[in-house]
TrEMBL record:
The gene is glgE. GO terms for molecular function: hexosyltransferase activity; hydrolase activity, hydrolyzing O-glycosyl compounds. The record marks D890 as: Transition state stabilizer. One of its GO terms (biological process) is alpha-glucan biosynthetic process. Alpha-maltose 1-phosphate binds at K667, Q727, D762, N804, K943, Y944. Homodimer. HAMAP family: GlgE. Keywords: Carbohydrate metabolism, Glycosyltransferase, Transferase. It catalyses: alpha-maltose 1-phosphate + [(1->4)-alpha-D-glucosyl](n) = [(1->4)-alpha-D-glucosyl](n+2) + phosphate. InterPro entries: GH, GH13_cat_dom, GlgE, GLGE_C, GlgE_dom_N/S, Glyco_hydro_b, Ig-like_fold. This is Alpha-1,4-glucan:maltose-1-phosphate maltosyltransferase. The active site is at D803 (nucleophile), E832 (proton donor). It comes from Achromobacter marplatensis.
Length: 1072
């Protein structure tokens, strides 16, 4: 009979499964264990679980060491047997009485050698050639068993499907299948089909820990509802957990168990809290051991957390902790929040939370503890031994207003007594903003100078531009009058800072009193002076409630001091009170700031979201994505390709212009001047009767189709970037509506776009300024172009690649970007300006977020090293973010034309490891390089024709690109253009460099051969000096390509590189 009493799971509710590894006792009316069963199930429910998992209660052989059955249709009942469905029906009813689902663990790849004919019909299983009990190579769990044939026999899937359907009718709500690799996907589909037709379909889960990538790939179409990670074997820091999650997610939603299903747990054993929280945090459901349901086990706390907020949805992002640092696991959560699980990998020592390392991965917002008690557990950004904490980044609104605050206050000329000089970071002394991302540490330094030997106090004042009050951080003296403080902005948009310094009366007094007291001098007068300073501070405080603690401290010290100058020497207790840190803090709070000097400039900071500093871009032409040769591709064809692109690790999909293409002067194949009726033309010739820059080429689809693409990309963890090309075809609607926006020649003809000697007959350019004598800006045109950007922003686009911005006026770009940022500070602009270096830098200063670079043409070690060092250090690093594209539709680099597959690997490694931003134009992964003879252009360029491809054709480098992007995602040092240090390689054909986060929480060494034809050897000295640890004698080196580990000591190491493997990558640490 069909069971109707089973609890129905809520949609998207995480499974919370308690594993009763030894099963549940009999519940027949005569059984003595009925009360014990009810008590167990009650405790499980009270701990927050919604399901209980048991091994299949079928008939096992005597002394069984595994779940392999003798008879899968019978269950033991005392000294006799009964149909297993009767046993399952009673257990499911008992579970349902506590609002629990019953789930059953099933394994049918093994059966007992004595299995019944109904369980193992002839020919289904094969026995070991010898008795396993006499073969020491076989585990005891294989003794006395037969194994399923490699090719499942006819009727196997149907037989098991029918059996499990009967169990479902008996009330079973789910199945966990051991060894799912024993059946191919089509057999699983056949087996599970009848279960899917049930009134209440059971959950069908696969136990997948330990399966290799090929085995997981074979299960993609099996139809499971969930698969399991290998969490029980994780060391709380290795990157493979996230890499495995990416593979598992392609099969089914991920679940996690705190231990192996067959792990032996005693009555007193408890699961490590780290394992429990990781299971719940990284998966869509978790399995806990029954031994953990009672405190101090973690189950109840974990289940309360799972029920308190929506489950995190994004893939787990693991930032591994090394050298005494905590591991941080990040996941996207509801309402644009990010959830963080902090784990201490060490069992016997505390671990620091390295926010410098993780900053590049955090969205805007406040970092808050996610459950009561975590704030205490963190203990000043440290985790206790074997500790863990759950936090979240609560979103904060972007900054939308420019600063309207009055200028800095000084005390007239007196304020100049203290000089403030050499502020850093600053771009052109504050004329342009320094760029950073949210949560990135901004370290401010300044020289502070004052006459005499009196002490200076100073503070850094910073705020978002729409905040009325300053946030403050004290500056600390470094050396040689250089002072420093830092802050971390939490919101996107404009910020500002200034430095203030003043004569520190109390610290000057404190120093003098301490020196004289230590020298044994008479300090009675000094004590009286101190009392006078305290009374003045008390008077200044007045009735300030915010300073009540400081006032109380001052009054307490005053009470202990003599009321007037006396002949009695002050006591040691009185001196200690005057020199105490508590009094120093109180006097600092109530300081009058005499001779205060404030920087005349408020130094601007522009704070971006993390994607401004790191991302992997993939460029494609939508019209070439059709699978059928000759058919014009659509946005739906692009949607079909998204999983493939995301699997390679790209997070930005960049589309060249998607607007209507003009007919007049349309270009033909290979930029020919004659186009046939079926030629598609250049997408940069924007505008036709179908519209202009705010319209879509009809052959690609509709606006609704585009919005569906944007949504689909977001579902795959990607953003869509659009090309903003201020170019018009002669058919653009603006030519009819606004002819004054264009340049006309004396004969009345249009001035076509030119880059002498090149001429673009299918494109005309707008004119930004009027003619003489006023040459006023054409404001209507400027606004129309701004409105084009805002139109696409309102339709979900937040990234724009701007075509040739250096050929348009700088004031226009500064105005347009400010206008857009005034409404949408999260919008990013990539400058495609292959031009003079100072112009590229100026474009960055006026507002461009990122920029193409000269990387494309840097091939030798010396020029590559020089360029990498230049753009990774201030001043350029403070405002210029390099984007390393390995190729573009316009640029087929000479190096790639002649270097073969090895050259593509070399350039991919240099780009992916050298900058936080890198990109490729589709076809690079296929090593496409056929040129127009003598030019850096592609033969049969996709700019002028359709170019369908086989994206998996032999010789591709997809796997290598995927691995490079995995390495980038797991290592914060690779998510920025900063932190690069060149390393001597002993070979001019090999480039070696280290990238490191501040504080060296993440250090990655990359060695790349620049020779695509011959083997090369580098000679490297382990960079022990980088870690600034005088006692360090060795480094732990993790090979990120082979997943092997080694210990590097002082000797020079020879690293051999070949055209087949022209690069090596290691993560370095002191202790691993």
């Amino acid at each position: 009979m069909a069971a109707t009493h089973r609890p129905v799971p809520a949609p998207h509710t995480p499974l919370r499964i308690c594993h009763a590894a030894q099963g549940l006792p009999d519940v027949t009316p005569a059984a003595a264990g009925a009360d014990a069963l009810e008590s167990r199930l009650t405790r499980i429910k009270q701990a927050g679980f919604d399901a209980v998992l048991i091994p299949a209660p079928w008939l096992l052989p005597a002394g069984a060491h595994s779940l392999a059955p003798v008879d899968a249709d019978l269950s033991a009942l005392g000294n006799r047997t009964e149909p297993i469905t009767q046993r399952l029906s009673r257990l499911s009813e008992a579970a349902a009485a506590q609002d629990l689902k019953l789930m059953v663990r099933v394994r049918f790849d093994r059966v007992s050698v004595d299995a019944s004919a109904g369980t193992a019909p002839p020919g289904w299983y094969r026995a070991h050639p010898e008795d396993p009990a006499r073969d020491p190579r076989l585990p005891v769990s294989d003794w006395g068993l037969m194994a399923l044939q490699d090719n499942p026999p006819a009727g196997f899937a149907a037989s098991w499907g029918a059996r499990l359907l009967r169990w479902t009718d008996a009330g079973v709500s789910g199945f966990l299948f051991d060894a799912p690799q024993c059946l191919p996907a089509h057999s699983w589909q056949e087996l599970l089909a009848p279960l899917r037709q049930h009134t209440v379909p059971p959950a069908c889960l696969a136990w997948t820990p330990g399966l290799n990538p090929q085995q997981l790939e074979a299960l993609r179409d099996a139809g499971f509802d969930g698969v399991f990670s290998s969490l029980p074997w994780w060391d709380y820091k290795s990157a493979w957990l996230a890499e495995e999650a990416a593979r598992l997610a392609r099969v089914a939603p991920i679940l996690a168990s705190v231990s192996a299903l067959d792990a032996v747990t005693g009555a007193g054993s408890r699961t490590d809290h780290r394992s429990a929280w990781t299971a719940a945090f990284t998966a869509r459901g978790w399995v806990a051991d029954e031994t953990d349901i009672d405190p101090p086990g973690p189950a109840e706390d974990v289940n309360q957390w799972l029920g308190a907020q929506p489950l995190p949805t994004g893939p787990p992002h693991v930032l591994a902790g090394r050298d005494g640092r905590a591991t941080l696991v990040l996941r996207d959560a509801a309402d644009d929040a990010t959830a963080i699980l902090a784990l201490n990998p060490a069992d016997a020592a505390p671990a620091l939370l390295d926010w410098d390392a993780v900053a590049s991965s955090l969205p805007a917002g406040d970092i808050l503890p996610h459950r009561e008690g975590d704030a205490v557990a963190l203990d000043a950004d440290a985790l206790p031994a074997a500790g863990c904490a759950v936090l979240s980044v609560a979103p904060m609104p972007p900054v939308r207003e420019s600063s309207r605050h009055p200028g800095p206050r000084t005390e007239g000329g007196a304020g100049l007594r203290i000089a403030i000089e050499s502020i850093s970071p600053a771009v052109d002394d504050g004329a342009h903003p320094v760029k950073c991302v949210v949560h990135e540490r901004i370290t401010v330094q300044a020289d502070l100078l004052m006459d005499g030997h009196d002490r200076i106090a100073a503070e850094l004042r910073w705020r978002a531009a729409d905040e009325p009050e300053w946030r403050r951080a004290p500056l600390r003296l470094l050396a040689n009058d250089r002072w420093q403080a830092s802050f971390r902005p939490r919101r996107i948009g404009p910020h500002e800072f200034q430095v203030a310094a003043w004569f520190d009366v109390w610290q000057t007094y404190h120093h003098d009193l301490d020196v004289k007291h230590q020298a044994g001098l008479d300090v009675r007068l000094e004590v009286a002076e101190g009392a006078q300073l305290l009374r003045e501070a008390d008077k200044r405080a007045g009735r300030q409630t915010s300073a009540s603690d400081s006032v109380a401290t001052i009054k307490r010290v005053l009470k202990a001091l003599p009321g007037a100058l006396t002949d009695a020497a002050p006591t040691d207790e009185q001196i200690a009170l005057l020199l105490g840190p508590e009094l120093a803090r109180a006097m600092h709070e109530l300081d009058a700031h005499p001779f205060e000097s404030v920087t005349a400039v408020r130094y601007p900071i522009w704070v971006d979201r993390p994607q401004a500093a790191h991302g992997a871009w993939y460029e494609l032409f939508p019209r070439s994505q059709a699978q059928e040769p000759g058919r014009h591709g659509t946005f739906d064809d692009v949607i079909e390709r998204l999983p493939d692109i995301r699997e390679m690790g790209f997070d930005v999909l960049y589309l060249p212009p998607i607007h209507p293409i003009g007919l007049r002067n349309r270009k033909g194949p290979n930029n020919s001047l004659t186009a046939g009726p079926d030629d598609v033309g250049s997408p940069y010739a924007i505008g036709s009767v179908d519209g202009g820059h705010d319209a879509i080429e009809p052959k690609l689809g509709t606006l609704e189709d585009f919005l569906r693409l944007v949504g689909a990309a977001q579902g795959h963890g990607m953003e869509v970037a659009l090309d903003f090309a201020i170019q018009c075809s002669p058919d653009h609607p603006w030519l009819q509506a606004h002819p004054d926006w264009f340049s006309w020649r004396p004969d009345g003809s249009l001035r076509y776009a030119e880059n002498p000697p090149k001429k673009y007959q299918d494109i005309v350019n707008v004119s930004f300024y009027g003619g003489p004598p006023r040459r006023a800006r054409k404001l209507a045109l400027w606004r129309a172009l701004r409105d084009v950007v805002l139109f696409w922003v309102e339709h979900g686009v937040r990234i724009f690649r701007v075509d040739n911005p250096h050929t348009k006026p700088l004031p226009f770009w500064q105005w347009l970007i400010a206008e857009v940022h005034g409404q949408h500070p999260d919008v990013l602009f990539l400058s495609e300006a292959f031009t003079r270096p100072k112009m590229m830098y100026r474009l960055a200063k006026v507002g461009f977020t990122q920029s193409y670079t000269y990387f494309t043409w840097r091939n030798d070690r010396a020029e590559l090293q020089s360029y990498l060092e230049e753009i990774s250090r201030p001043p350029p690093a403070d405002f210029f973010r390099p984007h390393f594209f390995v190729n573009t539709p316009d640029i087929n680099p000479l190096f790639l034309q002649t270097s073969g597959r090895a050259g593509f690997l070399i350039r991919a490694a240099l780009a992916a490891m050298g900058s936080g931003l890198w990109g490729m134009y589709s076809g690079f992964e296929l090593c496409e390089a056929a040129p127009v003879p003598g030019k850096e252009e592609y033969l049969d360029s996709e700019k002028y024709e359709l170019r369908p491809r086989d994206w998996h054709q032999p010789g591709n480098i997809r796997a290598e690109i995927t691995r490079l992007n995995q390495i980038r995602r797991a290592n914060p040092a690779l998510q920025t253009h900063r932190g690069l240090t060149a390393i001597p390689s002993g070979n001019d054909r090999v480039l070696a460099f280290v990238k490191a986060t501040p504080g060296l929480g993440n250090v990655v060494l990359t060695v790349v051969s620049l020779d695509p034809f011959h083997p090369q050897t580098a000679h490297l000295d382990p960079p022990l000096w980088l870690f600034a640890d005088p006692g360090a004698q060795q480094l732990a080196a993790e090979d990120l390509l082979t997943d092997s580990r080694d210990t590097w000591r002082g000797a020079t190491r020879a690293v051999t590189l070949s055209p087949d493997q022209p690069y090596r990558i290691w993560r370095l640490s002191l202790n691993g």
